[in-house]
Amino acid sequence: MAQTRVAAIDCGTNSIRLLVADLDPETGALKDLDRRMEIVRLGQGVDKTGRLAPEALERTFAAGRVYKQLIDALGVGPDRLRFVATSASRDAENREEFRSGVRELFGVEPEVVSGDEEANLSFSGATRELTGEAGPAQPYLVVDIGGGSTEFVLGGDHVEAARSVDIGCVRMTERHLHDDPPTAEQVAAAKADIEAAVDHAAEAVPLDRARTLVGLAGSVTTVAGIVLNLPEYDSTRIHHARLTRDQVRAVTERLLSMTHDERAAIPVLHPGRIDVIGAGALVLLTIMERIGADEVVVSEHDILDGIAWSVAD
Question: Dihedral of the CA atoms 215, 221, 225, 227 (nearest 10)?
Fold first, then answer.
């Protein structure tokens, strides 16, 4: 049976990512042809203004024009392309401006998915290759720490419960961490905000049932790269790395005590994450402390892979 070529775009609060892959219909395996990410900060100021900034829209559309050229060059038509937009474009008053720009550029309707759908796609992408006798213990708790929101999804072979809450590395930075480095009072305020959000998630998701914590997205993978002391970002080393809570705490405290220039000198840290990685690490640490997780399994496969699989399902 012939392979199916698909394209998936995940447009979040902080980044826009593309995956073009061939999907084997018999095994369900994805073979990456092109996987890339650009930091566009679409959610710049949304928490405060409720609107997508003009310059943020232009950064996003500029990256989109590059992605469209790649999609066309690899021969993927609009019937095999899915464009998913998440937290920032859900929250913004002027989201129709974003939607019309995407329609004009890609010829498809951008799907501003609900938090529940985002959670399902993240869970599918992260756990499809974990299941099996040799895999980590189920049920999994998948936490997808984005720029504007974090998804909590519990399940094994299927999703049992999910909730999206409005904490993320961009939102927490803009809301609380105003100094460089942030003050102890600012960190405490951010932590209290995160703890309240985790408690809200726990109202819908029985967090104490989780036997394996799986962490997704750039904040988590970057913390893993720092723990591993990588000289440059290496997804093969990061994928399925296991980080202890003490390791995450040490990195979080280090990041929150550093200046912008000190963080910029960390070789594994993408320039677009320099000002928000401290908040992202704090979200991860607070979740681990709140649910009593001794370690987190880091996954490079996430909502983007879930979107790609969904195109062919």
Answer: -30
Q: Facing residues of 4 across strands?
A: 23
Start-to-end C-alpha separation, the chain: 15
pLDDT in tens, 149-202: 898 999 988 889 998 898 889 889 999 999 999 999 999 999 999 999 999 999
Q: Quick check: 74 and 21 in contact, CB under 8 A?
A: no
| Residue written as token pair 């392979």 | 3
**pTM score:** 0.80
Close Cβ partners of 178 (under 8 Å, ≥ 6 residues apart): 186
Residues with Cβ within 8 Å of residue 232, at least 6 apart in sequence: 267, 268
Q: Are the beta carbons of 139 and 154 closer than 8 angstroms?
A: yes
Residues in the chain, total? 313
Do residues 22 and 33 touch, judged by C-beta distance below 8 A? Answer: yes
Report residue 182 CA to chain centroid gap.
23
In a 13 Å sphere around the CA of 157, the CA atoms on its Cβ side amount to 2
| DSSP per-residue codes, 51-85 | S--HHHHHHHHHHHHHHHHHHHHTT--GGGEEEEE
Set out the domains of the chain in order of their start, with CATH numbers. Answer: 4-112 (3.30.420.40), 116-303 (3.30.420.150)
| Core vs surface per residue 13-41: b (16+ CB within 10 A) or e | bbbbbbbbbbbeeeeeebeebebebbbbb
88, 164 contact by CB (below 8 A): no
Cβ contacts of 228 within 8 Å, gap of 6 or more:
237, 238, 241
Query: So what's the pLDDT on residue 128?
Result: 80
Of 184, 261, 274, 155, the C-alpha closest to 226 is 274
Quick one: tokens of 82?
């899915």
